Amino acid sequence: MNRRTRTALLGSALLLTVAAAAGSAGASASDESKAVPAGVSAPGESKREAAALTGKAKLYRSAGDDITFSFDAHLAAKDKADPMKATGTFEFSHYLNGEGARAKAEVDCLLTGGKVAVVSGVITDSDLPGAEGKRVGITVHDVGRHDRLGYSWASTGSPVETKDLPKCVGSAPFEKVRKGTGDFTVVPWRPEL
Fold first, then answer.
1. How many CB atoms lie within 10 A of CB 162?
2. How far apart are CA 136 and CA 167, in angstroms?
3. Are the beta carbons of 54 and 71 closer than 8 angstroms?
4. C-alpha angle 138/8/92, rounded to 5°?
5. What whole-number distance in Å separates Cα of residue 152 and Cα of residue 188?
6. pLDDT for the residue numbered 44
7. How far apart are CA 114 and CA 7, in angstroms?
8. Adjacent-strand bridge partners of 95
9. Half-sphere exposure of 49 (CA within 13 A, CB side)
10. Torsion angles phi and psi, residue 105, rounded to 5
11. Mean pLDDT score, 158-172
12. SS3 of 90, please?
């Protein structure tokens, strides 16, 4: 495997293992009928958060790649007018035949519209040389258990090769979530226009 192919594989692997499992609002197991969807406030609580992207899933690849993404990204109601005040983390990994990489990023922007979210963040921890400190962006289309996902390094092959990516930039959600591996939840942003 040549260096460029390995870098692309590692980059893709890193992108795909977004493993920050999402927290969800809800009730106890004994009171599931009154569970509240993620991002929505229960009666008597404060307003719902302005936007959110949560969940964990593996991507489908016919070659058997193990690619995982997880998100725990939130925009508080008080910050509704500024998506760059979003907080949280996301993780991704990509492995094939025992080779690959993983990364964790700190959220620096979250924009959602309907069932589509774009989140960006700076990589704070990774085993891919040169990845730490790089900004990456991911786009998710929440369509139930058939979610789709895209990432900013799709055209460069690796987060390491991405130069000066602005906040909240991702690619079209061209990848498919592997059936039965989880899904993502998008809470739509409703700015006052």
1. 21
2. 8
3. yes
4. 40
5. 21
6. 45
7. 35
8. 66, 100
9. 24
10. -125, 150
11. 94
12. strand
Instruction: Give yes or no for residue 172 having a pLDDT over 90.
Output: yes
Using only the alpha carbons of the chain, give its radius of gyration.
17
Nearest to 115 by CA among 143, 148, 151: 143
Tokens 């980059």 found at: 11
Which residue, among 53, 47, 55, has the nearest Cα to 73 in the 3D structure? 53
Q: Which residues contact 46 (CB under 8 A, 6 or more apart)?
A: 77
pLDDT digits (tens, 9 = 90+) for 68-127: 999 999 999 999 999 999 999 999 999 999 999 999 999 999 999 999 999 999 999 999
Q: What is the DSSP string of 24-57?
A: -----GGGGGG---TT-PPTTSPPPPSEEEEEEE
- Distance (Å, rounded) from C-alpha 173 to C-alpha 21? 20
Would you list the DSSP string of 50-78? SEEEEEEEEBP-TT--EEEEEEEEEE-GG
List the beta bridge partners of residue 73: 53, 88
| Residue 141 backbone class (left: φ over 0; alpha: ψ -120 to 50; beta: rest) | beta
DSSP 164: S
